[in-house]
Model the fold of this input.
Amino acid sequence: MKAFRLCLAASALASLLAGGVAVADPADQLEHIRPVLVAPPHVMEHEQATTAKPRVVEFTMTIEEKQIVIDEENGTTLQAMTFNGTMPGPTMVVHEGDYVQLTLINPTSNTLEHNIDFHASTGALGGGGLTVIKPGEQTVLRFKADRTGAFVYHCAPEGMVPWHVVSGMSGTLVVLPREGLTDGHGKKLAYDKMYTIGEFDLYIPKDEDGNFKSYDTPLESYGDTVEVMRGLVPSHVVFNGKVGALTGEGALPAKVGETVVFVHSSANRDTRPHLIGGHGDYVWDGGKFANAPLKNLETWFIPGGAAGVAMYTFKQPGVYAYVNHNLIEAFELGAAGHVKVDGKWDNDLMKQVQAPGPIPAAKQ
Done:
């Protein structure tokens, strides 16, 4: 019944568009720019504030279906579906009042139908009703970014939405205020770096012996994967596509004194980010900049289907663990990363007064 209602909605939309009256398009008169998207955890170059007039910001993303290793320790694989080949897809950044124009490409090498639903947009199932493309097709969607915040985008094909989302097809669009970020009381906030953290709950089927199974195509994995999904118990919960993606060589670099913004998206399940050894100086846990940020949080909550934003200025060097503070999911299922901070230690903030050693005999 739900799929039928979605089908009716799409049909009604097609009729509405077909019967529409041509009117002047204000976006056609605006400047068009084409910034370069980059792979997460990095974020495209952008202005934190702008005095420019609204523009049409053109992006291109190619859908890629591919097998990826999600746990290198045991070689566990996922038949992933991705935007631009990464989990999450690239983070797009525009300013309020700009138009987002996306060319979405579904190459002939893919096997499935795809589309895109922008939580930042208005109408047509978030654009999902206007962007359905089969292998060998492409489409162009444009919408006005009329509210600020960090927003999830994801694939949402009729009848297969959850499968595509938990197979890798989500990302983030950040719509900044034209004047830049503030604390909600007039104080301007600036940052040195912005990082993307995409959290994914994954559902990898097992064989009769308890070993994770591997498949040659996403479609081949469909039946087994949906059966596991319906149990609502993920086999893995990971940041940026695999266990350890943001540790070791993938750790996020920073320096003492630098202010870092973490854009954390979770398209399917609730999460509770925590920076071990640090804090959220300013946190937009709902991800929307029209609301004043919360301050000095130890852990914050991001509901499934949303992106949250946290800002922190690092004060001490060392390795900080950035985790989902459901610690079972962090340490047993993979939802953990590292921030590696360079700089000089401040004994006033923390000092080891006495190193670990034997208890003096007099006190035993």
Notes: The two ends are 72 Å apart (CA to CA). The first helix runs from residue 2 to 18. Residues 70 and 242 are 4 Å apart (CA to CA).
